Amino acid sequence: MQWMDVTLPMRAETVHWPGHPLYTVSEMMSFERGDPMNVTAVSMCSHFGTHIDAPRHYFATGTAVDELSLQVLVGPCRLVIYPGREHIPASFIQDLDLEGVERLFIRTMNSPRLVKPEFYPDYVALTIPAAQLLVEKGVKLLGVDGYSIGPFEPELGMPVHRAFLGGGPQQVAIEEVSLLGVPPGEYQLIALPMRLSGLEAAPARVLLGSEG
């Protein structure tokens, strides 16, 4: 099995959602200052970088990120490419053969932008009907190379989240996945969020494995 790390590196220049607190690193102790060890403090938003949204993100009593099942976060995954520049329509999802597919990654034109520090509000996201159809087809985990599964505009982005994350107690959205150059196909997925108790989201390390 050959593994690819599709996690964005966390650093000051990594893109962040407008209005969210910046990622900051501060030295508490360091060899350069004469201390006997290195100790670093890190501050960031739970939605910074490659991260997992749990149902609690949009539902007050929804499943928290530390309550997500490993049976959903680990297993077979399919990656497809959406070539359009408009938001993903239900027709694209309808044309996919998703029988038996519980984990789906969608690579779009977002991938080259995601590795840049600038935020592009016209990123490609799901439409509400597409999100609803994914749930109907049995997709429990969705990974995207955009900043969000929903559009930047709140009146569009929030309903998309509710439609997908509201599909069941173990619905998972993985956002800001670094898919640049990753070919479509079948993979093994390992997506492990930090075990932040009771929270709606957490940074995650995401790996895709393939044979050969």
Q: For the record, what is the CATH homologous superfamily label?
A: Putative cyclase
The first-level CATH class name: Alpha Beta
Estimate what percentage of residues fall within beta strands: 25-35%
Lateral arrangement of strands in the main beta sheet: 4-8-7-6-5-9-10
Low-confidence stretches are none
Q: What's the overall average pLDDT, rounded?
A: 98
Tell me about the biggest sheet?
7 strands, mixed, barrel
Alpha-carbon Rg, integer: 17 Å
> Count the strands?
10
User: What is the helix content?
Assistant: 10-25%
Estimate the global geometry from the Cα principal axes.
globular
Strand-and-helix sequence, N→C? Answer: EEEEHEHEHHEHEEE
N- and C-termini, Cα separation:
7 Å
CATH topology: Glucose Oxidase, domain 1
Number of helices: 5
Judged by helices, strands and strand pairing, the structural class is: alpha/beta
CATH architecture: 3-Layer(bba) Sandwich
At a glance:
This protein has 212 residues and is α/β, with parallel strands linked by helices.
Please characterize this protein's 3D structure.
This protein has helices at 70-73, 90-95, 110-114, 128-136, 154-165; strands spanning 2-5, 24-29, 39-43, 51-53, 74-81, 103-107, 141-144, 172-175, 185-193, 201-210. It is α/β, with parallel strands linked by helices. It has a single domain, classed as Putative cyclase (Glucose Oxidase, domain 1, 3-Layer(bba) Sandwich). The termini are close together. The mean pLDDT is 98.
